[in-house]
Amino acid sequence: xxxxxxxxxxxxxxxxxxxxxxxxxxxxxxxxxxxxxxxxxxxxxxxxxxxxxxxxxxxxxxxxxxxxxxxxxxxxxxxxxxxxxxxxxxxxxxxxxxxxxxxxxxxxxxxxxxxxxxxxxxxxxxxxxxxxxxxxxxxxxxxxxxxxxxxxxxxxxxxxxxxxxxxxxxxxxxxxxxxxxxxxxxxxxxxxxxxxxxxxxxxxxxxxxxxxxxxxxxxxxxxxxxxxxxxxxxxxxxxxxxxxxxxxxxxxxxxxxxxxxxxxxxxxxxxxxxxxxxxxx
Length: 281
Description:
The chain is of the alpha/beta class and 281 residues long. The protein contains five helices and 29 strands. 39% of the residues are buried.
């Protein structure tokens, strides 16, 4: 089956496009682009240079892939965006290439990037990640397999989100989120395990029970972090527990706290209000 390219689209002769690729109307494909077999571009899609797409991806109207990073340090040198297979990019989503010369932004396979979402430069997304509408993922973020970001989530640069973690809507992720957790609140806080996600991923009762035990040790034992991690290693020798411990030990930003341990205080609206509050108390 031959390549299908709408007559209103502009496709560089330097682009490498496999058979069975479909390019809808008013698309732009620049030099140094590679597109794998079975990939479908709807209308008004732009794929910038140095972008590689695997097979059977679907790009909805208005998607922009491989655009220059939104970074003042970017000097225009060559960098890359590499995308795997069977990913879906919904309307007006975008992914930037890397900032430093020869650096890479990477998305794996079977990811679902929803409407209005931006994935910034030098991010690394694994497989089966869902990023819902209007999320903003800043530079150098790492998201492991199976993570789920609900609508309106913002992720601070250099943050890490672990495997099968679920982020509630409108959460600000400015600390690392360990694997398997359910988190929410504006100041990202752990709410327990992502039980729905774990069951959908095929985790059995014993595996979930062990993760619950690890969560209690991590967040409820009041042990210093390293002691809690050592106890998890000693008492729960499962692959998931090992991954949890390894993720936390690699964390540079620190991990989110348990919601039950966070005191929520209403900030004073002005110095006068703060003074009045002290007088009343």
